Amino acid sequence: MLGRGGRWLQRAGGAAPAPHGAQLSFDGAVLRLKSGWELARGLLVLRLCGLPGLVRRAPTLLSVSRRLLGHRLWGSLLRASFYGQFVAGQTPPEVGVTVQRLRALGLRPLLAVPIEEDVGQDKEGEGWYEGNRGAVLGCVGLSAQGGSQPMMQLKVTALMSARLCRTVSLRLGEPGGLSEFSMDRVMAVMGGEEANFSGLSPAENRHLQASLLRLDGVTQRAVEAGVRVLVDAEYTYVNPALTLVTLALMGRWNRAQPWVWNTYQCYLQDCLVRLGADAALAERRGFCFGVKLVRGAYLEQERRLARERGYPDPLHPTWEATNHSYQHCLDLLLELVARDGQQCQLIVASHNETSVSHAIRRMEELGIAKDGGAVCFGQLLGQAGYAIYKSIPYGAVEDVLPYLVRRAQENQSVLQGIRKERDLLRCELWRRLLRRP
After folding, report:
1. Cα(40)–Cα(86) distance, rounded to whole angstroms?
2. Sheet with 108-112, side-by-side order of all strands
3. Which secondary-structure segment (H or E) carries 36?
4. 280-290: pLDDT as tens digits
5. CB-based contact 241:172 (threshold 8 Å)
6. What is the pLDDT of residues 219-241, one digit of tens each?
7. Given 22, 29, 299, 311, which residue has the most CB atoms within 10 angstroms?
């Protein structure tokens, strides 16, 4: 799925050929392992997702079609199309089948529970977040069955109010905020101390304490199961709080190896500076540093918010500037990995061929082993011995569809520009129809 893993900046074609020729193939050879039905479905779904008007009206269309078709037929059609294309399944056995098929394709699963909350969508009481805790722990268990070096995705706002995340983010920007909401104090609350932050109300302190204990408990279970937790970045108005929480989890659990990873969005102008500062903090404090490096997925929303609220656009102004940012961040991280592949590890979460090729070239130059586990990649069209992960949500049709619609609406820049993947699907279908070798 084209989720928030930083692929909105992919362009159709125009990517530089991979250096060292045969190191990694982008020719779609992996598609030969898919069935004809899967190829046809993928081509159709990607074409439909590339229609802005359809994606914009998707919530209304889904609601109307459900009333007209009835729940059973509606669910069957979606399972055969969009749900089947992007989702691992609903039940643990269904997810298990999908995981095994991915591994047969040379891919590793990166499971995600499609639960999140935005400001203005606040839930009443702790019950909703506690229920999500159970779902996330289920994801830990399923991810642990996914083979070697399993990973899972986690959204902080599934376990902690988005409104509180925004409040903490605002406090961090105020004088004295960094000392009030320090990493050490957050770690102490995770360890059982009472939350008593002067910048928060009693109710906010109680919710913060419950949320930090939830996050820490999930992380502990993941570490015990051998699952690495990739914490997603979200909107800029909550990201400072998300990073604070993630660094605190790193400080508690990343002592021997990086179990907790943070996501850095390279379309943000301050990304390289923050990445360097957090890497230096990890080295200074003696914990391992795991990074999911993305371009970013909230382009239209972030720019609209900047216009409406009258603050400077936080994003790089051009495609080229974002590419430069991604490459500079990638170079910094690869040099850290080359120095100590246990202290710093990285997932290159991009479909952009130029970025992936650059990463592979630098890995060769720096002597980073492709199968050493310190560097892995998001879903690609070729393997060549590298660790490749595919992000996939799972859950009931009714629960996952709103998530899929939001991802499609947030990623229109990608969905209109994935011509290469569509071309590869089309070529593979024609090859089979014409019975070519």
Report:
1. 14
2. 375-377, 344-348, 289-294, 260-265, 228-231, 151-154, 108-112, 389-393
3. helix 36-49
4. 999 999 999 99
5. yes
6. 999 999 999 999 999 999 999 99
7. 299
